[in-house]
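Incident log, structure service

09:12 report received: a user says their structure output differs between two submissions of the same chain.
09:20 pulled the input from the user's history:
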Amino acid sequence: MQFKKLGNTDIEVSTFALGCWPFAGGDVWGEQDDGDSIAAVHAALDAGINFFDTAEGYGAGKSEQVLGEGLVGRRQEAIIATKISPPHLDPKVVEETCDRSLKNLGTDYIDLYQIHWPNHDIPLDDQWEALSRLVEKGKVRALGVCNFGIEDLSAALGTGECQSDQLPYSLAWRAIEHEIQPLCVESNTGIICYSPLAQGVLTGRYKNADEVPEGLARSRHYSKDRPQSSHGEDGCEEELFEAVEKIRYVADQMEQPMASVALAWARSRPGVLSLLIGARSPEELSWNVPAIDLKLTPDVSAELSTVTEQVKEIIGSNPDMWNSDNRMR
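09:34 re-ran on a clean worker, output below:
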């Protein structure tokens, strides 16, 4: 397992992180056994993963609670990242929100506290002042953001305390490369990637857009006519699955799982700190283990970038996977 420093801190995180949203179960993820979730946490630690990402909004704190149970007796081995929801960025409730997450997690400090989505109704300076007080009190070690576009990220960086930006990034979703990634590299702001397998597309499990479940086929990859779609774009279904077949060919030539190759590509990109992998059990975690030590040659990385270039150009610079009206200002 490789480790990198979080922004300008001395906190070292594994280049793979366990995304703990599935622990919440519920309407989004369906039935989830807490014992399986806790076992997944233990398996991740045993595999060398020390970075765990959750949020107060995942199952109204359920994900945080289960992660906390999984880390009983092993808290010192883990770096915990959680998130504060936009309505709770009101300075009057920031500390009590953090305290609730601390209680859920069964810990007295959070390693990385992230703004989950921007709240443009409250001045960012006011939000950041309240968050910074948590650092001063020792309740939080470092601050970061999620889903911040170029304008909001620039403002956050102006505080001097923003260490990371969590964003969607994968071979199939390269929108951040236009503007956000260069700023992150320049400012040493770690990019934490969510959906690094494009919600399963880069595992090779789907041969075409019609095979993708309705709940997943609502991103801007897909036609506006797909059920549950909330954007008004034509998408790039044909181009996406042509690229998937070319990625599959590269992976076959390497005799590696397609998912491992896609993850290795993302991990090697400039500015990338860590990739979130979702696992609901030790078995699911094991599917990602082959990617931990896989390294691509520069030629292979360049080939993979080339085969997804057309998808990148169609998607453009809007990093919002689901909305034409970009929520990432």
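09:41 both user submissions now match this output. Likely a transient worker issue. Closing.
09:42 reviewer note: The chain has a mean pLDDT of 95. DSSP finds twelve helices and ten strands in the chain.
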